[in-house]
Structures are given as C-alpha cells and as structure tokens.
Amino acid sequence: MTETRSTCPYCGVGCGVIIESDGTQITGVRGDPDHPANFGRLCTKGSTLHLSAAAPVTRATRLLQPLQRLSRGSTPQPVGWEAAHTLAADRFARIIREHGPDAVGFYLSGQLLTEDYYVFNKLAKGLIGTNNVDTNSRLCMSSAVAGYKRTLGADAPPCSYEDFALADTVFISGSNTAWAHPILFRRLEDARRARPDQRWIVVDPRRTETADSADLFLQIQPGTDVALYHGMLHVMLWDGLTDLSYIAAHTEGFDALRDTVRSWTPAEAARVCGIAEDDLVQAARWFAQSDRRDARDGRVGTTMSLYCQGLNQSAAGTDKNAALINLHLATGQIGVPGAGPFSLTGQPNAMGGREVGGLSNLLSAHRDLGNPAHRAEVAALWGVSDVPAQPGRSAIEMFQAAADGEIRALWIACTNPAQSLPDATTVQRALERCEFVVVQEAFSTTATCAYADLLLPATTWGEKDGTVTNSERRISRVRPAVAAPGQTRHDWSIGVQFARALEARLPERLNGRPTLFPYPTPESIWNEHRESTRGRDLDITGLSYGLLDEIGPQQWPMAEGEARGRDRLYEDGVFPTASGRARFSAMAYRPVAEPRDARYPFALNTGRLRDQWHGMSRTGTLGRLFGHVAEPAIELNANDLARRGLAEGDLVEVSSRRGSIVLPLVVSDTVAPGQAWIPMHWGGEVLGGRDAEGAPRLGVNELTLPTNCPTSRQPELKHCAVRIEKAALPWRMLGLAWLPQEQALAVREQLRALMGDYGHAVVLPFGREPHAQGLGGVLWRAASDRPASLEQVQRIVALLGLDGPETLHYQDRQRGQHRHVRLVDERALDGSTDRVLRGVLLAGDTRAEAWMKTLLQDELPAQAYGRLLLSGSPSAPVALAPRGRQVCTCLNVSEPQIIAVLGRCGGSPDERLGRLQGELKCGTSCGSCLPALRTLVQQHPCTAGTPEATPQAH
C-alpha cells in the first residue's frame, strides 16, 4: 500500500487527506493529522472519497476518452486527442475571425486547481483577447470578493481558523456551518468546550442545526440582513459601543453611514426583519462586547463573524457583505486575534481562482481589469500586446448571451451549469442554441454532458497535481495517488494543448513568440503565477512546491525572504486602499428582488445538505450518503399544510414565474410559515418528469431567479417567490432493487432516460457501501395522471432485474396495478439460509411501500411473508419495526436506535451524549452528526426509572 498526502476536493475548508492506494486503485482515505485545516478530521463526504473512486464507480460514471457528437442529440463517438484539439481549435478560430473574440466564452469551476485556472484565464484574456471567462465561483463567492474590496480594499479574508478558539463571540450569519463546513463546526465546538463563556449568535431564515446550537438565534425574514446590521449599528451608536479612536485612525466614510442608520431604530429594524426587538439589541451588545469592554487581563472581548451563501447569493449580496463588515470596522473588531469578518468559501479552490483573476472582471494577483496600469502589467507578464479593457460577461450574462445567439462557442470545464445555474430553462436554451459546446469533465453523467458537441475526459481527485487555496488563505498541495485512467488528461494540460492548437490559427496574438504556453508541468505554471503576485497583497514569492512539500501548507502573503505565511491581516490598521484606510459603506436597504404576492405566496430558499456535494456527480454514486436525506422533497411549516389542506407525503407542484417541479411534502419546524426549502442538489439528473405541456422538468433550478447583484453579478439563489399546489398525479410507481454495483450505476443512468414518460420521476441510489456482496441500491419513483402502459412497466421490470425465475408477479391491468418481488436465498453467518428481498416494483397501489422498503433496504429475512408480499397491504403482515431516519452516516445509526438508548440514559446532556456514543458509536467517526445528536439529547429525556438511568451510573 502507498500513502499520498493531498487535499479534499469538496468545500473550502481545505482539509488534508492521506490517500491509500495499491498501484492503480485508491483503496482508502483518512484525514491528515498534520494538516492545519483539519488535524486529521474528515466529514462524511471526505471520509467516503475512496468509495467514489472505486473501480466499479469509475467504469460506470467516468468519461475516459474524447467523444464527438456528429449532430445534436446523437450518441457521441470516440475521437483521438489530436483530432479533438484540431476540431476545437478550428471551430473556435472560425467563430473568432467571423464574429470577434467576444463570441466565445469559457465557464470554469471552483473545483479546478490554481494551475488549471491560470491556463484558461491566460488563454481567454491573453491569447484570444476576450474577458468572457467566468466560473461557478460567481455563484458562490463573488459578493464576498466585492464586499471585501468595497470596504477593506482587497479580496482577502483577514482571519484564520485559529481565531475560532480566541473569539469571545461568534456571529454566524447566512451559513449553516454544521452542514456546509462540518470540520469548521467541529473546531467551533472545541472552542466553546474549552471556553464555555464563548457566545454564539446565529442569523438565518431557517432554524438549522447551526441555529440549534446558538445562544441567540435571529430567525430573520429572507433578504433582510442589511436592515438587521443597520439596526445593530444604530444600537451601538446609541449605547456608545463604537470604537471612535479606531474609526478616526483607520477608516473613512463613517459620517455617511451614521446618517444612513439613524432611521434604523431597533423597533424599525426588528419589524422589517420579523424578530423581537430585544433580541436585536442583545445581538448588537454582544457583538460590540458591551459587557466585556473593560479590559480583562489587558484584553477587550473580541467578535468573529462567519458568513457564507446566505449573504452572498443575493441581489443585494455585496451590500450584505459590506454592511456586516461595517460592524467590525465600527467596533475595531478586525486585525486582532479572535476578531474579523471571515467569509467561508464554498468550493475547494474558489480562492485560488480569485487569486489568478478567474472571473470576468478580474486579472491575475487581485489586479483590477478597469485599471490600465494593471492591464499593462499582466500583458507584459504574458507577452501579449494588450489585455482587453471591457469586462467580460459573468456567468448568468454568458449563458443569456448564448441563448440570444451572441456567444456562439462555449468551453465548460469541471462544472455542470445545466444543473447549477438559476433559471435552468434559459440555460438549456443557451446550450441548445450555441453553435459549438465543449465540455471538459471527469464524469459522463452530468446533465451538461448531454449538450456537448465535444466531450474531453479530465482527471479528478486522486489523479491531479497542483495547488489549492482554502478559506483562510492557506495554500495546500494536491498530489496524485494513482495514474490517470483511460485517456484522461489533466485540466491544465487540456487547456495548454488547445491553446497551442489555437495559436497556430491566431499567430498575430503571439508577438513573435513560439508559444504563450511553454508549460511542461503544473509547477512551471505555478511559478509564473507566483511571479505575478510579487509586490501584491497576496505576494507568495517566498513559496515554492518544494517549500510546501517541506514545511506544509502556508497562508498568504508569504513574500520572498519570509519564513512562514501570515496568520491574519490588517494588524497594523493599514488597508490596501488609496488612503490606507478602510472604507465604510453606506447603503440603502433593498427588499428581495422578487417579492411574494397572491399568486406566488411562498418564499423559496435553497441550500446544501450535510452529506451531498453540488450536483452529486461524485457523492451521488454512493448509497450511504443518501441515508441522512434519502430523496428530494420540499420542506414546509406545519401551519402552511394545515391552512391548505395538505398532508405530509403529498405530491405538490412547486411553480415560480420560470417553471415548475413536483416534489413530496415534508413537515419541518426549520422553516417559518410562508417559507419553503429545497436542497440545491436535486437537479435533472435525479429529479425529473414532464409538465402538462410536455416540457421536461429540469430540477430545483428551474424555479430559481437569475436576477443578480449589480456589483458582484452573483445571482439570487436564496429567494424566489413560488406557489405550491397539490399535484394531479394519482398513479404512482415505486421500484427498489439490489444489483451488482456497476450494474446498479448503469441502470440508474438508463432509468434517467425514462423520466420524461411521467409527470414526476426520481432516480437515486440507496444502501451502505461497501456491501458485503458488492451490491448497489437503485430507487425508482414515478407518478402520472394515468396508469403507465404495460410496455412501460415491463421496461422498468427488466431494468430492475425483476423478470427472472426468482420473481413473484401480480398484475391487474384494468386497474393499472402491478407488483413484482424478487426473493433469493442467502446464507447467514451461522450457516442457515434466509430468503431475502432483492427487488420490488409496486405500481398503481404503493401503500405497502413503508414496510416493504424497510424489508428490502435493511435486508431482513422475508421467508415469513411468502405470497403476502404481493398483497399490497399498507401494513406489514408480520411485525416489522422500520429503522427510521438515519442520523449517523458513518456507522449507519438511525433515530429510533438513538431514542431507545436515550430513554434509559440519565445524567447531564454531556453525560447522556457520552453514553450514546459509547453504546452506538454514533458521532465518534467524522462527527458530522454531533449537532443532530445534541438536539436529540435535548428532545428525548430519560424515561426509565432504573438505577442504570441515574447520573451515578455514569
């Protein structure tokens, strides 16, 4: 076995991992105990990376050779790499010559490495001469970039993870940290355990697991963040809690902001936000450390803010970021240990992309595209005559331009805009109308791949070599553990080869040079990037691959001659602005871009699940990661169901002004009345069907709003107005099967092609990997306004392996009812033989779902049921206890198991949690379920009266 140190490819925490491999196959992964981001911890997603890299998954889901479609909608055919680059270069060169450089666009990803990013940024802005290069970081962090630049002068998070342990107050706004950044939440828990007087304030429209851990929770109305911060600043001014000496010495623009917030009294701000006035006042005083302003051991209390997509993904995203930073500047809570505004990055290398200028309005090393001197510096570094001055199109604008016929060629790398961009119908129209679409991707299963004229296979985690930068400005190495499979190539290499092919067709851009891309290795690219940072705020001229290998991950800046990177910024009170002072931003509060009305009375919010990642091209291959949240659903408050005569489990049609999808209802106390929540992950790959007019349903982003922040161009993904009505789809179908893992992955892809036959359809995995028999679970669900035809049912039966001699059948064609159950003999450990259920199809009448699903998924003995399995009974003919909701993914521990232990477990909350962990081991692996366990401890007191249940027993 070989061990390779690398970095996790998921969120912006930047956890170090140790990859175990046996030559050609990754066999295991664990957290790197020496990495300063995670010190050995991994969340549920990171700890299963090796399973998503297993050979059966790779064979079934990976794009392993270049493919070309001869016509739209046709099956792609293999093509060699040279022919692929020739085709791409010919098409791009022709479009550039006939329609100009701005007729092409590049859409990249925050999951690319810094070296990959650098090549494509130089390719577009340097060689082609267009600034139409943007990334999905536009959907993630561009408001944070704009907010930092507007107030502090540069895109630089000033804090470090070590500040978590030093803060007296932690202010979490617009971030469900417990789910989106679990390892950082573990560090926060550690900090509060070490310092019990540390206070947490959480601001969110939803009562999340993060909110449940708060000392003060402000459940504001969607989009009212600026009103909240203005109200808090009003309180600070009224109570004399601002730091006037800091304001005078290190800032400018305070008078204008003071005038702006004068009208935002606590009563008015609380009214707009929908919270109690006393809570707003308490939050302001805690933030300003009103009770800790007298020095304790020579130190005044400190406040650290953590924020993410709740602030960023908004039509007022830059204002929200800047308004929060105003509070830090007004109280001097910046540049000191344990204090500062800390934007939590959503993707693993969104920071690295920002560093190389990987957005349509940026240039390398945090240079501004609008600055002629900056453009000249980059042009000289690259060896081109100029860099275009006109900002390129941002993500939303780029796809709108393609839909309008203005952009004629798109190059999409390592991202899935057909699933992730808002207003998916417009994105679909853009991809269909665009003359030439190149998709550079590791996975063949993404929705965007279906629109590609040319598919180029890229390497992925465990195969790549380069660097990434995490949320705290820390640069880490990414190292390959195994060789690139099939004909895959590294993203930077694909970009370089395409650039060289294009150079032959655009020789006028070379200024007499043989090539602008003389890169034999990723390190050679990184060295050029490093030189571009010399003298800049993110100067990394003191770093090298060798030094990173020797001393480990480092934070920037780390200029030449420095021994280590800098923990925090602005400690001297000097900011990278013309005056050297930070700038207050006086903005007016603006309500949400699409207000609710009588036709669309609900406010829809979208966000992350704990165990899934983005479009699920990787996590969606693992049944284990669907244990926590098994299927798509929409969450509503119980009061809203009661008022509309709806019940949990009802299928409802959720419609916005842009489209509609169908989902089952789930009652939730996390959302307030009048609001709704759908996870962002449910795209057209897993959730589909057709509407009444026959148009395909494209997933959750068919609903969302493309309106974006005028400064950052980040779209409003946290709010849109929707209506919710019961769906007229009375005929239902449920299919479940255990199949050999590789076959299960292939069957799910085949079922995806059938979703359009129904008004609502879902295709997902289930199960727990690795299965003892190497099996994978397939879940198929469909609903329609009429029974499916016999041919349609038989097609599903065959795909689920229910057409063999081991299957029992029942059919009532007149009533559209079909039941098929497959039973096999399985030898138990004691040598006995059990009859177990391996596959089920219920069509027309699915009332037996609850117990049959439990019987199959938990692989319980089924011999006692016999032909009763075909009865369709809504209740189990033989007593059967369903496992219930899974809480701990790592150890497969369910909620009923946990409640049973808590019922006989007394003592303090910490003692009861310890007993729970001791018996069931839940929460002892990655720890992502710990917030849920603490909530269950609070909700379920000890009910037993035995000595075992007393505190003394512990």
Automatic annotation (TrEMBL):
A GO molecular-function descriptor: molybdopterin cofactor binding
Metal-binding among keywords: yes
Gene3D superfamilies: 2.40.40.20, 3.40.50.740, ADC-like domains, BFD-like [2Fe-2S]-binding domain, Dimethylsulfoxide Reductase, domain 2
Pfam families cross-referenced by the UniProt entry: Molybdop_Fe4S4, Molybdopterin, Molydop_binding
Keywords tagged on the record: 4Fe-4S, Iron, Iron-sulfur, Metal-binding, Molybdenum, Nitrate assimilation, Oxidoreductase
Domain named 4Fe-4S Mo/W bis-MGD-type: residues: 1-57
Family affiliation: Belongs to the prokaryotic molybdopterin-containing oxidoreductase family. NasA/NapA/NarB subfamily.
Naturally occurring in which organism (per UniProt): Sphaerotilus hippei
Biological process terms in GO annotation: cellular respiration; nitrate assimilation
CDD domains (alphabetical): MopB_CT_Nitrate-R-NapA-like, MopB_Nitrate-R-NapA-like
Protein name: Assimilatory nitrate reductase (NADH) alpha subunit apoprotein
SMART domains: Molybdop_Fe4S4 (SM00926)
Family annotation (InterPro entries): Asp_de-COase-like_dom_sf, BFD-like_2Fe2S-bd_dom_sf, CT_Nitrate-R-NapA-like, MoPterin_dinucl-bd_dom, Mopterin_OxRdtase, Mopterin_OxRdtase_4Fe-4S_dom, Mopterin_OxRdtase_prok_CS, MopterinOxRdtase_cofactor_BS
Matching PANTHER family: NADPH-FE(3+) OXIDOREDUCTASE SUBUNIT ALPHA, RESPIRATORY NITRATE REDUCTASE
Names of the cofactor(s): Mo-bis(molybdopterin guanine dinucleotide); [4Fe-4S] cluster
GO cellular component: membrane; oxidoreductase complex
